[in-house]
Structure to design on (199 residues):
């Protein structure tokens, strides 16, 4: 199904202009990402609704997405692995947030850990999408830290579902930008270093 969708979209795109092989590869990768992300969102949304955690799931998406978009992070090696991890995370974490009562000192320790991880490792690129520009990396890091401080301010002052979701989204993303997860999955970290740096 994925192959048919990707090939159909490429045929449509190729009608508009003659693209180089490199351009075709970039478009193919982008279309595959859109397809995989779209199908996962549909399936996980239906699951969340069936399991009665639709509200928590939507909140998790809302607070997690900006972190992911700005600090990037690890990707699974296979589509199957990605499905398993995505369903586990986007169903289990929102459910956990609805039943947790996190003490303030635990929140502070967790936030310090997230601050260290984001300062050291964000943005974490991948081999397929290296962030070569030092200006872009600085922008993504600064933006990630701004969101972290906004979330932290709310988390420390409140003890509710939103606070729990903000904290767990920070913790989850901090895990996905950690070089240890890259090492465990046999992936390279700081891939931009393999390129001539550009501004």
């Amino acid at each position: 199904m994925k192959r048919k969708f990707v090939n159909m979209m490429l045929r449509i795109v190729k009608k508009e202009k003659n693209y180089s092989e490199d351009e075709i590869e970039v478009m193919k990768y982008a279309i595959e990402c859109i397809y995989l992300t779209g199908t996962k969102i549909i399936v996980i949304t239906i699951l969340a609704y069936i399991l009665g955690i639709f509200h928590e799931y939507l909140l998790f998406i809302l607070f997690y997405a900006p972190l992911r978009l700005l600090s990037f992070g690890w990707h699974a090696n296979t589509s199957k692995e990605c499905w398993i991890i995505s369903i586990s995370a986007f169903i289990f974490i929102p459910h956990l947030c609805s039943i947790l009562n996190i003490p303030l000192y635990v929140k502070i320790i967790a936030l310090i850990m997230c601050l260290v991880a984001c300062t050291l490792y964000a943005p974490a690129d991948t081999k397929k999408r290296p962030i070569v520009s030092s200006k872009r990396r600085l922008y993504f890091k600064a933006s990630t830290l701004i969101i972290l401080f906004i979330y932290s301010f709310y988390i420390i002052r409140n003890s509710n579902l939103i606070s729990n979701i903000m904290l767990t989204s920070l913790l989850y993303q901090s895990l996905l930008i950690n070089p240890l997860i890259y090492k465990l999955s046999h992936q390279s970290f700081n891939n931009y270093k393999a390129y001539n740096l550009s501004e």
